[in-house]
Specification:
Elements (H helix, E strand, L loop, with lengths): L1 H11 L4 E2 L9 H4 L10 E5 L4 H13 L4 E4 L17 E5 L6 E5 L4 E5 L4 H10 L2 E2 L12 H7 L6 H4 L2 H4 E8 L4 E4 L12 H5 L7 E9 L1 E2 L3 E9 L2 H15 L3 E8 H10 L13 E9 L3 H18 L4 E4 L3 H12 L1 H8 L2 E2 L3 E2 L5 H15 L4 E7 L4 E7 L6 H22 L15 H7 L2 H14 L14
Parallel strand pairs: 2-4, 3-4
Antiparallel strand pairs: 1-2, 5-6, 6-10, 7-11, 8-9, 8-10, 12-14, 12-15, 13-14, 13-18, 16-19, 17-19, 18-19
The structure holds flavin-adenine dinucleotide, D-malate and zinc ion (ZN).
Flavin-adenine dinucleotide binds next to strand 3, helix 5 and strand 10.
Length: 474
């Protein structure tokens, strides 16, 4: 391996090849997953600074039969971006490739390198007078390359779609170390198979995304946020229908949060002053973006909430008076993941179910889990507007969470995913498969679909050097 490491140093510079041999180097940030469930050991962390360097690194690794794990911000939640524990894999970090290459206002597009942090992309769009709508709790450290590789969702999908729908072009380094220049920025292109959509959501197993051309949108004239107490999930679904009807394309966010999820935020971050949660089983966070004016936005929003209050689907509500208040409400929602982590190890799900069936799914699955594992706690929240729930499970209050996970995780997942299948849903709406869910795909994805996926992987990466064992079993 010394020869390979020497070659890699020649390609990216010695300072950008980190190994355990260097007593100064701490590889923890690249080897430990965000949830602190798993830690791998890398042969080296390699940090190229250009697409040509990425291509040369891939060629060198392929020649040495060394496998690569692409990594962006390492905020993934399914163990897909860290090396295994053999000490034989190269982590290919895209973090140094973070430039904004071009803004094209006429085409409403922005082209950025894969390691651009999502928040920096949002800021670059804002500075150019536009909106880049992809938004998620990890936006301060996740990268656009990782967002595309996982086809990330987040809180604006109800209006703008997920990462795939925002992407118009990609630049990709293939498993052979070739560069595919696909940064067209075209909204229409029917010249054969859609390679762009194949790489989006492939979790680093088919190619390395080095740059992307993304859609921009006009900034709304006004954006209003409301926090509403709802008596039941059925009522939340009715409120969603009313919001679609009355706000149309103005509905840009619709999140649901169960009382226990909010109680964890209140417990771990009392300074955030979570509103209304004590007196209601569910809260909903709604966002209305308006292209006319603040007054227009406010009157439409108030009409919606009034009709919802009249119908009894909302029992109380607060509308943010200004941007600071709105940010605070979103901050509470986005702190649930962190509060859950503070509470201890947990089991995450990012399932999707047809919106109309979600209340029945939750009733059914809560009952099945409570019967199987008395005392289990439900941290239920998510993107109801997209039919996407984070139906998460916290260990019973008494007892060791580590032991709970070891003994019950598989059982919990089987109960939840069997219910998801019975309700025509998907076991991953936005986080992806990674290593955590790959064995579950065998049960919940059709053999025909799996066969096509294996054929694609075999054709694009016949040596199996890109993120082996993620998405598909080796
Ligand atoms: P990484 O974690 O580094 O990598 C993720 C996967 O993509 C890995 O398989 C990796 O190999 C691959 N990859 C990374 N970069 C590239 C590249 N350039 N080319 C090819 N493959 C690559 N996700 C959501 O969808 N919605 C949410 O609302 C959401 N909220 C979150 C909130 C918090 C607090 C946290 C910690 C995570 C959240 N996530 C959410 C999950 C995570 O942020 C996303 O999956 C994100 O898209 C990962 O980006 P990343 O740059 O950190 O990728
Ligand atoms: C979110 O929407 O906050 C994350 O995707 C959920 C999670 O951490 O499970
Ligand atoms: Zn989410």
């Amino acid at each position: 391996m010394t020869a390979l490491l020497d070659t890699l140093r020649q390609i990216v510079g010695a300072a950008n090849v980190l190994t355990h041999d260097d007593p100064q180097a701490d590889l923890g940030a690249w080897e430990q997953d965000w949830r602190k469930r798993t830690r791998g050991k890398a042969l080296a962390v390699v940090r190229p600074g250009s697409t040509e360097q990425v291509a040369a690194v891939v060629k060198a690794c392929a020649a040495a039969k060394v496998t690569l794990v692409p990594q962006g911000g390492n905020t993934g939640l399914v163990v897909g971006s860290i090396p295994d524990n053999t000490g034989s894999q190269v982590v290919l970090s895209l973090q140094r490739m973070s430039a904004v290459r071009k803004v094209d206002p006429g085409n409403l597009t922005i082209t950025v390198e894969a390691g651009c942090v999502l928040q920096n992309l949002q800021t670059a769009a804002d500075n150019a007078g536009f909106l880049f709508p992809l938004s998620l709790g990890a936006e301060g450290s996740c990268t656009i390359g990782g967002n595309l590789a996982t086809n990330a969702g987040g809180t604006q999908v109800v209006r703008y779609g997920n990462a795939r729908e925002l992407c118009l072009g990609l630049e990709v380094v293939t498993a052979q170390g070739e560069i595919w220049e696909g940064l067209s920025g075209l909204r229409k292109d029917n010249t054969g198979y859609d390679l762009r959509d194949l790489f989006v959501g492939s979790e680093g197993t088919l190619g390395i995304i080095t740059a992307a051309t993304m859609k921009l949108y006009p900034k709304p004239a006004a954006q209003l946020t409301a926090w509403a107490a709802v008596p039941s999930l059925e009522d939340a679904v009715t409120l969603l229908g009313l919001a679609h009807q009355q706000l149309g394309a103005g509905l840009t966010g619709f999140e649901v949060m169960a009382q226990f999820a909010l109680s964890l935020v209140d417990k771990h971050y009392p300074q955030l002053r979570t509103p209304l949660w004590k007196d209601t089983p569910w809260c909903v966070l709604l966002e209305n973006s308006d292209s006319e004016s603040e007054d227009h936005a406010r009157s439409r929003f108030e009409q919606l909430l009034e009709s919802a209050l009249e119908q009894g689907v909302v029992t109380d509500a607060v509308v943010a008076e200004n941007l600071t208040q709105a940010h605070n409400l979103w901050h509470i929602r986005e702190s649930i993941t962190l509060a859950q982590a503070e509470e201890g190890l947990n089991i995450k799900h990012d399932i999707s179910i047809p919106v109309s069936r979600i209340p029945e799914f939750v009733r059914h699955t809560d009952a099945a889990l409570s019967a199987a594992i008395p005392g289990v706690r439900f941290v239920n929240f998510g993107h109801l507007g997209d039919g996407n729930l984070h139906y998460n499970i916290q260990a019973p209050a008494e007892g060791d969470a580590k032991v709970f996970l070891r003994e019950q995780e598989e059982n919990v997942n089987t109960i939840v995913y069997d219910a998801v299948q019975a309700f025509d849903g998907s076991i991953s709406a936005e986080h992806g498969v990674g290593e955590l869910k790959r064995h579950k795909l065998l049960k919940h994805k059709s053999p025909v679909a799996l066969g096509m996926m294996r054929a694609i992987k075999g054709a694009l990466d016949p040596q199996n050097i890109l993120n082996p064992g993620r998405v598909l079993e080796v």
